[in-house]
Amino acid sequence: MKCDACSAIFCNDHIKYDEHQCPSSHRKNIQIPICPLCNQAVSYEYRDQSRDHAVSAHIDRDCKSKKREKVYSNKCSIPSCKQREVIQVKCDICLKTYCLRHRFPDDHQCQQMKNTPVTTSKPLPTKVSSNQRTQEEDDYLLAKALQESEREESQRNRTHQTTTTATNNSASSADKKTCSIQ
Protein backbone atom coordinates (compact mmCIF):
# COMPACT_ATOMS: atom_id res chain seq x y z
CA MET A 1 0.00 0.00 0.00
CA LYS A 2 1.19 3.50 -0.79
CA CYS A 3 1.23 6.21 1.91
CA ASP A 4 -0.76 9.22 0.69
CA ALA A 5 1.50 11.64 2.60
CA CYS A 6 5.06 10.51 1.83
CA SER A 7 4.31 8.20 -1.17
CA ALA A 8 6.35 5.31 0.30
CA ILE A 9 5.06 1.73 0.03
CA PHE A 10 4.17 -0.15 3.25
CA CYS A 11 2.40 -3.32 4.35
CA ASN A 12 -1.02 -3.23 5.98
CA ASP A 13 0.50 -3.09 9.50
CA HIS A 14 2.72 -0.08 8.79
CA ILE A 15 0.53 2.06 6.56
CA LYS A 16 -0.60 4.31 9.44
CA TYR A 17 1.34 7.55 9.84
CA ASP A 18 2.40 6.75 13.41
CA GLU A 19 3.51 3.21 12.53
CA HIS A 20 6.11 4.29 9.96
CA GLN A 21 6.81 7.70 11.56
CA CYS A 22 5.80 9.52 8.43
CA PRO A 23 7.71 12.81 8.02
CA SER A 24 4.82 14.32 6.02
CA SER A 25 1.99 13.28 8.31
CA HIS A 26 1.31 16.82 9.51
CA ARG A 27 0.04 17.67 6.03
CA LYS A 28 -2.64 14.97 6.02
CA ASN A 29 -3.28 14.24 9.69
CA ILE A 30 -5.12 17.46 10.52
CA GLN A 31 -6.72 17.59 13.93
CA ILE A 32 -8.62 20.63 15.07
CA PRO A 33 -7.31 21.83 18.44
CA ILE A 34 -9.66 22.93 21.20
CA CYS A 35 -8.92 26.02 23.29
CA PRO A 36 -8.46 25.00 26.95
CA LEU A 37 -9.94 28.29 28.18
CA CYS A 38 -13.12 28.72 26.13
CA ASN A 39 -13.54 25.14 24.79
CA GLN A 40 -13.97 26.39 21.20
CA ALA A 41 -12.43 24.84 18.09
CA VAL A 42 -9.38 26.77 16.92
CA SER A 43 -8.72 27.23 13.21
CA TYR A 44 -5.23 27.19 11.75
CA GLU A 45 -3.88 30.38 10.17
CA TYR A 46 -1.80 28.40 7.66
CA ARG A 47 -1.56 24.73 6.72
CA ASP A 48 1.72 23.68 8.40
CA GLN A 49 1.11 25.61 11.64
CA SER A 50 1.57 23.61 14.84
CA ARG A 51 -1.41 23.07 17.11
CA ASP A 52 0.29 24.86 20.01
CA HIS A 53 0.95 27.97 17.94
CA ALA A 54 -2.63 28.01 16.68
CA VAL A 55 -4.05 27.81 20.21
CA SER A 56 -1.58 30.41 21.48
CA ALA A 57 -2.53 32.82 18.69
CA HIS A 58 -6.23 32.22 19.44
CA ILE A 59 -5.74 32.98 23.15
CA ASP A 60 -3.78 36.15 22.36
CA ARG A 61 -6.29 37.49 19.83
CA ASP A 62 -9.87 36.32 20.01
CA CYS A 63 -10.42 33.97 22.94
CA LYS A 64 -13.82 34.60 24.56
CA SER A 65 -12.85 33.29 27.99
CA LYS A 66 -13.22 35.44 31.07
CA LYS A 67 -10.15 37.53 31.63
CA ARG A 68 -8.50 36.97 34.99
CA GLU A 69 -8.81 39.81 37.43
CA LYS A 70 -5.56 41.35 38.48
CA VAL A 71 -4.58 40.46 42.02
CA TYR A 72 -3.02 43.82 42.86
CA SER A 73 -5.82 46.02 41.56
CA ASN A 74 -6.05 48.62 44.34
CA LYS A 75 -3.79 51.51 43.32
CA CYS A 76 -2.70 54.16 45.80
CA SER A 77 -4.35 57.58 45.28
CA ILE A 78 -1.08 59.45 45.85
CA PRO A 79 -0.02 60.45 42.29
CA SER A 80 3.70 59.79 42.85
CA CYS A 81 3.11 56.39 44.52
CA LYS A 82 2.98 53.40 42.19
CA GLN A 83 2.20 50.85 44.92
CA ARG A 84 -0.77 48.49 44.48
CA GLU A 85 -2.36 46.35 47.19
CA VAL A 86 -4.32 43.09 47.24
CA ILE A 87 -6.87 44.50 49.68
CA GLN A 88 -8.59 47.83 49.38
CA VAL A 89 -7.57 50.31 52.08
CA LYS A 90 -9.90 53.31 52.15
CA CYS A 91 -9.52 56.42 54.25
CA ASP A 92 -12.66 56.92 56.33
CA ILE A 93 -12.35 60.67 55.99
CA CYS A 94 -11.76 61.29 52.27
CA LEU A 95 -12.89 57.82 51.06
CA LYS A 96 -9.95 57.41 48.67
CA THR A 97 -7.95 54.20 48.25
CA TYR A 98 -4.36 54.15 49.53
CA CYS A 99 -1.47 51.72 49.89
CA LEU A 100 -0.43 50.52 53.32
CA ARG A 101 2.28 53.19 53.57
CA HIS A 102 -0.20 56.05 52.98
CA ARG A 103 -3.28 54.61 54.70
CA PHE A 104 -3.37 57.00 57.67
CA PRO A 105 -4.75 60.54 57.15
CA ASP A 106 -1.45 62.11 58.30
CA ASP A 107 0.50 60.03 55.78
CA HIS A 108 -1.48 61.23 52.77
CA GLN A 109 -2.17 64.80 53.98
CA CYS A 110 -5.88 64.18 53.94
CA GLN A 111 -7.62 67.28 52.54
CA GLN A 112 -10.87 66.50 54.35
CA MET A 113 -8.99 66.42 57.67
CA LYS A 114 -7.53 69.90 57.02
CA ASN A 115 -10.99 71.28 56.24
CA THR A 116 -12.56 69.74 59.36
CA PRO A 117 -11.83 71.54 62.65
CA VAL A 118 -10.37 69.34 65.37
CA THR A 119 -12.74 69.31 68.36
CA THR A 120 -11.48 66.39 70.42
CA SER A 121 -8.21 64.60 70.94
CA LYS A 122 -9.65 61.21 70.01
CA PRO A 123 -7.63 59.17 67.56
CA LEU A 124 -8.88 59.34 64.00
CA PRO A 125 -11.17 56.52 62.97
CA THR A 126 -9.48 53.86 60.92
CA LYS A 127 -11.24 51.10 59.13
CA VAL A 128 -10.42 47.73 60.65
CA SER A 129 -10.41 45.00 58.08
CA SER A 130 -11.75 41.56 58.87
CA ASN A 131 -8.30 40.02 59.18
CA GLN A 132 -7.10 42.31 62.01
CA ARG A 133 -7.32 41.18 65.63
CA THR A 134 -8.49 43.22 68.60
CA GLN A 135 -6.13 44.30 71.37
CA GLU A 136 -7.56 41.66 73.74
CA GLU A 137 -6.89 38.92 71.20
CA ASP A 138 -3.33 40.16 70.73
CA ASP A 139 -2.79 40.26 74.51
CA TYR A 140 -4.17 36.75 74.91
CA LEU A 141 -1.94 35.38 72.15
CA LEU A 142 1.10 37.13 73.63
CA ALA A 143 0.37 35.73 77.11
CA LYS A 144 -0.07 32.26 75.64
CA ALA A 145 3.24 32.53 73.76
CA LEU A 146 5.04 33.70 76.91
CA GLN A 147 3.57 30.86 78.93
CA GLU A 148 4.68 28.33 76.31
CA SER A 149 8.15 29.88 76.21
CA GLU A 150 8.48 29.66 80.01
CA ARG A 151 7.32 26.05 79.97
CA GLU A 152 9.91 25.13 77.35
CA GLU A 153 12.64 26.96 79.28
CA SER A 154 11.82 25.16 82.54
CA GLN A 155 11.73 21.82 80.70
CA ARG A 156 15.15 22.58 79.19
CA ASN A 157 16.52 23.48 82.63
CA ARG A 158 15.20 20.23 84.11
CA THR A 159 16.73 18.22 81.28
CA HIS A 160 20.05 20.05 81.70
CA GLN A 161 20.01 19.46 85.48
CA THR A 162 19.30 15.76 85.00
CA THR A 163 22.14 15.32 82.50
CA THR A 164 24.55 17.33 84.67
CA THR A 165 23.69 15.23 87.74
CA ALA A 166 24.01 12.00 85.76
CA THR A 167 27.36 13.13 84.33
CA ASN A 168 28.65 14.09 87.79
CA ASN A 169 27.52 10.76 89.26
CA SER A 170 29.15 8.79 86.45
CA ALA A 171 32.33 10.86 86.74
CA SER A 172 32.59 10.28 90.51
CA SER A 173 31.92 6.56 90.07
CA ALA A 174 34.51 6.52 87.28
CA ASP A 175 36.98 8.19 89.66
CA LYS A 176 36.22 5.54 92.26
CA LYS A 177 36.71 2.82 89.67
CA THR A 178 40.03 4.26 88.59
CA CYS A 179 41.05 4.59 92.21
CA SER A 180 40.14 1.03 93.13
CA ILE A 181 42.02 -0.34 90.11
CA GLN A 182 45.25 1.36 91.16
TrEMBL record:
Residues 162-173 have a biased composition (Low complexity). The keyword Repeat applies. It comes from the Eukaryota. Keywords: Metal-binding, Repeat, Zinc, Zinc-finger. The keyword Zinc applies. Residues 110-182 are annotated as: Disordered. InterPro entries: AN1-like_Znf, UIM_dom, Znf-C2H2_ZFAND2A/B, Znf_AN1. This is AN1-type domain-containing protein. It comes from Adineta steineri. The lineage of its organism: Eukaryota, Metazoa, Spiralia, Gnathifera, Rotifera.
